[in-house]
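_Full entry_
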Amino acid sequence: QVQLAESGGGLVQAGGSLRLSCSAPGGRFSITAMGWYRQAPGKQRELVATITNGGATNYADFVKGRFTISRHNAKNTVWLQMNSLTPEDTADYYCNARVPMGPFEKDYWGQGTQVTVSS
């Protein structure tokens, strides 16, 4: 069982920055990819950014140039640096970890951290 611990959400004014952190402590397991997703009220959960254990990144178009995802493999930790935030970025942000299990992969999720951007 992989438990993810998130931190770093909060309230910020438009144009400001926040840094989210997520770790999977006690990790006697390998994680192939980690990432961040978000869900705004009344909307579906959507991908924000992911990063593989090889460092390959993938970003949603709406965050390119503003958000940066990074990762420390040995610590099973991923960060999301969010700059130039807008009210449209207001959402609950969820950490994701993908763990290989035999021929399959299993997704684990954090409990979410709230990000609120005021105009």
Remarks:
- The mean pLDDT is 94.
- The first strand starts at residue 5 and ends at 7.
- The CA atoms of residues 41 and 93 lie 12 Å apart.
